[in-house]
Amino acid sequence: MSILKQFLFSFLSTIGFAMLFGIPKNSICKSGIAGALGWVTFYIISINFNSYISGTFFAAIVVGILGELLARHYKKPATVYIIPGIVPLVPGAGMYYTMLALVRKDFYVAISKGTETFFIAAAISLGIIISTSLSRSIKRVKYKG
After folding, report:
1. Which among 17, 37, 91, 95 could bridge 120 via Cys, Cβ 3.0 to 4.6 Å?
2. What is the pLDDT of residues 50-90, one digit of tens each?
3. Structural domain boundaries of the chain?
4. Would the pTM of this model clear 0.85, i.e. be above it?
């Protein structure tokens, strides 16, 4: 699928979740862009490095940095942009296939999928933590200097 289609579909899904979460109307499109750019980052890195975990990590960093920048510029909490932005990255299918393998008593597949899903979730949280910490460090240095 082309990158433009990936961008469009992830933009629409992020907007849908932004509306579901009830974020302010003037921030819906901006959070959609953050989610779409995060997904495109995930798509490109996953293909080039053949790793969903590294793709998710860098995509979460992109979403986190965009969320912090948009929050500072539009004077809103960063979570308004970050939470809907990471929704396309959440490994829902991995969780489903892990549980399906457990129900079928296929423990090798369950462990394999479960481990990958866990690392993807950890990559999301690490990416957000790193981008938020980086943003706060820059802000702290900026105000001291």
Report:
1. 91
2. 999 999 999 999 999 999 999 999 999 999 999 999 999 99
3. 3-144
4. yes
